Amino acid sequence: MPPARRTRLGIMGGTFDPIHHGHLVAASEAAAEFDLDEVVFVPTGQPWQKSDREVSPAEHRYLMTVIATAANPRFSVSRVDIDRPGQTYTADTLDDIQELRPDADLFFITGADAMEQIMTWKNVEHLWGKAHFVGVSRPGHELTDFGLSEEVSLMQIPAMAISSTDCRERVAQGKPVWYLVPDGVVQYIGKYGLYLDHSGNMQRPT
Ligand code: ATP
Ligand code: MG
Predict the structure, then answer these.
(1) Protein residue with its CA nearest to atom 8 in ligand 1
(2) Is the ipTM reported for this complex over the cut 0.95?
C-alpha cells in the first residue's frame, strides 16, 4: 500500500465580526488551488482593548462563523484562539492547531491586508516552518509576498469588495446586508441586535 497522504489543512484566521462572503470565497478558492482537505476557521480572541472600536463578544463571532460554515463538510470552526487568554498571535494559533492535528500540513490563508501585518520582521521568525502561507487578493489592497520566503504563495481570487467594517456600518445605518453575509448570519445579527450602534453595548447570547 502506498504511504497515506498527509492531511492538508487550511487555517483561516479572522475577527469575523461578522463573517461575510469574502471570507468564504477566500477559503474555498485556497482550498481548491492547494488541494486542501479541510479549512478550519479560527475566530480571534477577545482583544483586551482596541483603540478604534469595541469588538463583538467572542461567542457571537464564533457562533456566526459556525452558522456560515455549517453546510460545508470541509469547513469547521476552532475555539483555540477564543479560549486562549490574551491577544491572539498567529504563531500560537498554528502551534495549537498542529498539536490537535499532528497528522496535518498547515496552510495559513490570509487576505492581502492581513498578510502585510503578519509578515513583519518581528513576526516571521516565529512563523517559518509552522505553515505554508497563502496570500489571497483583496480589492483595495496590494498583494505582495515581501520576497521573504518560498513558504509564501500568492493567488488571485474573485474580487469580493466586502468587509466586516462595511457590514457593521450598513447595519448601524439600517441598510441591508443580505447577500453580503450568509442568510443565517443576517438572521443572527437581527436576533441579537448586533451592530445597531457603535457603543459596543451588545447583548451576549444566552
Ligand atoms: P474588518 O473590516 O473588521 O477588519 P474584514 O472584512 O477585514 O473585517 P477580518 O476578519 O479582519 O475581515 O479578516 C479575516 C481574513 O480574511 C483576513 O486575512 C482578511 O485579509 C481576509 N479577508 C477579509 N475580507 C476579504 C475579502 N473581501 N477578500 C479577500 N480576503 C478577505
Ligand atoms: Mg480586517
Answers:
(1) 164
(2) yes
At 146-201, the pLDDT tens digits run 766 778 999 999 999 999 999 999 999 999 999 999 999 999 999 999 999 754 44
Instruction: Choose one of 53, 113, 119, 198 to mutate for the ligand 1 pocket test, by most ligand atoms within 8 angstroms of C-beta.
Output: 113
Count of structural domains within the chain: 1
From the alpha carbon of 162, which atom of ligand 1 is closest? 27
Measured CA distances, 143 to 12, 15, 116, 152, 156 (Å): 17, 20, 9, 12, 9
Say which CATH number the domain at 50 has.
3.40.50.620
Strand ranges (E), 20-103: 38-43, 75-77
Does residue 1 sit within a domain?
A: no
Expressed in angstroms and rounded, the spacing between residue 114 Cα and the centre of ligand 2 is: 7
Mutate to test the pocket of ligand 1, among 15, 41, 143, 166 (most ligand atoms within 8 A of CB): 15
Can you give the pTM of this predicted structure? Answer: 0.93
